[in-house]
Design goal:
Helices cover 14% and strands 21% of the residues. The strands form 2 sheets. The protein has a two-stranded antiparallel ribbon with strand order 1-2. The protein has a two-stranded antiparallel sheet with strand order 3-4.
Length: 78
C-alpha cells in the first residue's frame, strides 16, 4: 500500500471507520501533534503498554499467549 493523501484518509475514516476516534485536522496546541495531515495521520498512543518477554522460556503461541509472557508497563508522561 502506498502513502495515502488526506482526502483518502478522511473518506476511509468516515465511511469505513478506519480510525476511531478520528481528528479531522492536525492538532498541535502545546502537545505532540495528532490528526490528519496532507499525507498521513499522526496518532497518539496510551501511556500503558504490554511488553512481551520470554523470561520464563514459555512456548510462544501467537493465538494463545501465556499471560506470564507479558509485562505491564506504564510510561511517565512528559
Amino acid at each position: 500500500m502506498s502513502i495515502k493523501p488526506d482526502h483518502w484518509i478522511r473518506k476511509m475514516a468516515r465511511e469505513q471507520h478506519m480510525i476511531e476516534p478520528f481528528a479531522d485536522s492536525q492538532v498541535r496546541n502545546g502537545v505532540i501533534s495528532y490528526g490528519v495531515s496532507s499525507y498521513g495521520y499522526d496518532i497518539r498512543v496510551a501511556d500503558e503498554f504490554k511488553i512481551f518477554t520470554n523470561v520464563y522460556s514459555a512456548i510462544v503461541d501467537p493465538k494463545h499467549f501465556d499471560p506470564k509472557s507479558m509485562v505491564d508497563f506504564k510510561a511517565r508522561c512528559a
